[in-house]
Amino acid sequence: MDQTPLPKCVVNCAAYDRNGQRKDISLDAISDVLAEDDDSFVWVGLNEPEAHLLDKLQEEFALHDLAVEDAQSAHQRPKIEAYGNSLFLAVHTAQKVDGHVAFGETHVFIGPRFLITVRHGASLSYSSVRARLEREPVTLARGPTAALHAVLDFVVDNYQPIAVDFENELDALEQDVFAEAYKRGTIQRLYELRKELTRMRLAVAPMQDILSQLTRSPSFQIPEAVRPYFRDVSDHAVRVGDTIDTLREMVSAAMSVNLSLVTVAQGEIVKKLAGWAGLLAAPTLIASWYGMNFVHMPELAGQYSYAVLIGMVALVCVALYLYLKKIDWL
């Protein structure tokens, strides 16, 4: 076992023989292992590596310049590219951080005898994936494509709990939408949720295309025995994508309903104000009529004019109140 210390950004560097058994190696020993004529392969795991380290790996694995250039940048669109007998994949990862979804990237180089995973940003370590595969040496004996399947399966599986969290949050927000009191924070959170769902969709949808190309395109040389596993991951990605699409539609509907309910509530308030205004208008009109101070107003001379006027005002107000109450304006 090579005891040469690895750079901090190198999480793992190991060779796996035809029986799936692990042997830790140094970066300098990679080319020597690959030069051996056997069925072993090398798996290197990196976390935000520096440019000179990628240059070193390019030398050891004979990677294409364009693929290495893409791996140095953490702002790649999800894609799959073929360079000779090797592939370069860029996929987006997602992770819940402080109640919000943070997105990262994983860049993958895969060839007949090597697999390199490069993590950027919010992404869980693939150490657990590697550990699980090492407990199943029969799977590792299938080569780097089996390890690639495990990595992509891990990425897609991490989408699912985030989608479930989105669904639970939407259920809670729906309760606030139909609450009696209007909450400004509800519409704000609905907007933020839709934005996060849209970003999530931008991560999940291309993954479906990548997995589809891996399973259907003969140019990528995925062994026939491994293809069903990639189709299974593709089915998971499609299911998550459908969930995200459904949630986006439900959030849009919730936003529309929330705004409609606010408009209806405002209309009810305006209607009630108009009802009270109409109720107050009647005595105001009558009082203003008798407040014009004309000399010849016969009603003013009557002994019971004041009492009749008060009774008339009360009768009009009561009648108007009962009518407005009946038509639900008060």
Keywords:
330 residues; alpha+beta; Beta Polymerase, domain 2; Methane Monooxygenase Hydroxylase, Chain G, domain 1; 2 domains; seven-stranded mixed sheet; 7 strands; 16% strand
**Poorly predicted tracts of residues:** none
Helix count, per DSSP? Answer: 9
The portion of residues forming beta strands comes to 15-25%
Q: What is the CATH class designation of the largest domain?
A: Alpha Beta
Structural class: alpha+beta
Largest sheet: 7 strands, mixed
CATH topology grouping of the largest domain: Beta Polymerase, domain 2
- What fraction, in percent, of the residue positions are helical? 55-70%
Structurally, how many domains make up the residues? 2
Reading the helices and strands in chain order gives EEHEHHEEEEHHHHHH
What do we call the CATH homologous superfamily of the largest domain?
Answer: CorA soluble domain-like
Overall pLDDT: 84
Rg calculated over all Cα atoms: 36 Å
Strand order of the largest sheet: 2-1-3-7-6-5-4
What is the 3D form?
Answer: rod-shaped
The end-to-end distance, rounded to whole angstroms, is 86 Å
Number-wise, the strands total: 7
